[in-house]
Amino acid sequence: MVLPALLLLVIFSYLPMFGLVTVFQYYNVYQGFLHSPWVGLQNFDQLFSDPAFWRSLWTTLELFVVQTVLFFPVPIALAIMLDKMLRKWLRNLVQAIAAIPHFFNWLLVITLFQQMLGGAGVLDTFLRSHGVSNPFNIMTNASLFPLLVSAQAIWKEAGFSAIIYVAAIAGLNPELYEAAASDGAGRWRQIWHVTLPGIMPLAVLLLVLSIGGAVSFGFQQMYLQLGAVGTNAAQTLSVYAYQYGIAQGQYSYGAAAGLFISVVSVILLLTANWLAHRFGQGGFYQGERSLRKMATR
Amino acid sequence: MSVLVAEPGALGTGGSARRAGARKERRDHRRPAWEPAPTRAGQTIKAGVLAFYMVLVLGPLYIVGLTSVSAQATINRAGGLVVVPGRLTLNAYRLIFSGGVVDRAALISVAITVVGTAFSMVVTVLAGYGLSRTGSFGHKAILAVMIFTMFFSGGLIPFFLVVTDLGGFNQYWSLIVPTALSVFNVLVVRQFFAGTAVEIIESARIDGAGEWRILGRIVLPMSKAVCAVVALFYAVGYWDSWFNVLLFMPAESSRWPLSYVLYQYVTLGQSFAGSGITSGQYFGHQPLAPLSLQMAIVVLVVLPILVVLPFVSKYFSKGVLLGAIKG
């Protein structure tokens, strides 16, 4: 019964992994993987000596750090606000609406942002009709791009991420709150001393997982905005790999950049997990266990 | 204890009423005696923040929807997207569905979504069931082989080359088959199947039911919830998908699905060349389709998602919780 799935994986996940041999080739469409000439490490030589590669690595990390720092607290704050809402129907409604954008793809999200904030968009038109002659266009501003990217990520995913934190908070032992209250803790102190420590393992797990995606994140989001904000601001590593590998047809070179992304991702994931363990948080395994427990309860 | 575990994803009416019964009395409309009451100012600020969040999410959808049904005169007066309703008309939709690029693309999208979701579900359910029967042949190894792909991939380019080498270029199957399987969804389904009571399965087996019958008659009917969620995720994925089109049939405009038409005509702002819809406002040097038409396309992509969500969102929490394992 597992066979069809296995077949799909072998063809579309494992074959490409073997296809990675092409990073040591000069891939030629007519000669294929088997007969393209071998060039040794030349692709990597070229990759590591390309300033654009290092710049896109830097761009990737910059966007990732800014986005993570700005995004991370939002779903937690949202969940804490939702948890204390007494009217269940209202809480569910707010939560459902906040989760809607998760089901839009980046194409829709960026189109909507463009229509709202971009040139000739709602904000632009509003400012113009109120006497601002040449309004500022955030959709094409390269230096504010990290903030824009973060705003888009928050709009799209914060509501959906909050669902899981709401579940985690609801799963905390109410006796802890009761004890805290009888010790004189107010609402804020309860959040600080009971809620936040309670959801810490989950938060750390999500952080560790997101760090694993640090070098590959946001391909579609950046690709779609490349034209608007320019290569310097939006060319992340995965966009770089796509542009050289597919748009320009330098398959082997693009694949080499892709391999770099995959390998660094695995290293980052393992490192982040190890660090989380070192600092006394459960990291991957413990976080996953508590999640599974929550999910099957 | 278990009555205190909220089912936060349980949206809409009914839903988890049966589980939440006891909890409802404690949490709904009533604060525990020991809990300090919130201040007036705190409540106001919180309500304000949440209301603002709702506006941020719903506002753009409202504006886009309103613009798609606004008359050209109203759009001109607003100088772009319409925020305050003026004269309403369904002209944009009439124009779209009177033949041409968009309605064909919509049909293609529906077909891809239906066929793709069915295909994905069959593969996923079979794999999930097979892997949920611990102790079956090669169980651990196959699981490891699957999970490995979640952490390491060959990257985009080898994937692209494999699909094109198999003749996937400009073929519909290249939009479905290569990305049909989500290992993560297999794990979700497997987890759920594994929770099916062993006694029931054993008794069915003693009564002579084979694996297929057990899956079809017992396990599947007991797993409607998880199947609904997984199917939704697949369906939205297919409906939304535009990047596979960019990869595998960027120039084959007669085969484009709706979301790629959105990309071409709205996001990139190209004209409706050859569709008979070239009239409209001019912006710079680039002829644009009338704004109401563009927004109607956005609505066509968004609306099915909004319609389906409420039906499955009550099953979310479990799916999301498991989902976090992948992140």
Properties at a glance:
heterodimer; A: 297 residues; mainly alpha; MetI-like fold; 16 helices; globular; B: 327 residues; 3 domains; two-stranded antiparallel ribbon; 64% helix; disordered C terminus
Overall description:
The complex is a heterodimer of chains A (297) and B (327). Chain A is mainly alpha-helical and 297 residues long. Chain A has one domain (47-296): MetI-like (MetI-like fold, Orthogonal Bundle), CATH 1.10.3720. Helix content of chain A is 74%, strand content 0%. Chain A has 16 helices and no strands. Chain A starts with a helix and ends with a helix. The model of chain A has no long low-confidence stretch (mean pLDDT 84). Chain B has 327 residues and is mainly α. Chain B has three domains: 1-37, no CATH class; 40-89, no CATH class; 99-326, Orthogonal Bundle (MetI-like fold). Chain B has helices at residues 17-27, 40-68, 72-78, 91-96, 101-132, 139-151, 156-165, 173-176, 183-194, 198-206, 211-219, 224-240, 243-248, 258-267, 291-312, 316-326; strands at 282-283, 286-287. In chain B, strands 1-2 form a two-stranded antiparallel sheet. In chain B, a hairpin with a 2-residue loop joins strand 1 (282-283) and strand 2. In chain B, helix 5 runs antiparallel to helix 12 and helix 14 (258-267) crosses helix 15. Mean pLDDT of chain B is 78; it is low at 1-27, 271-287 and 323-327. At the A-B interface, helix 1, helix 5, helix 6, helix 7 and helix 8 of A face helix 2, helix 5, helix 6, helix 7 and helix 9 of B.
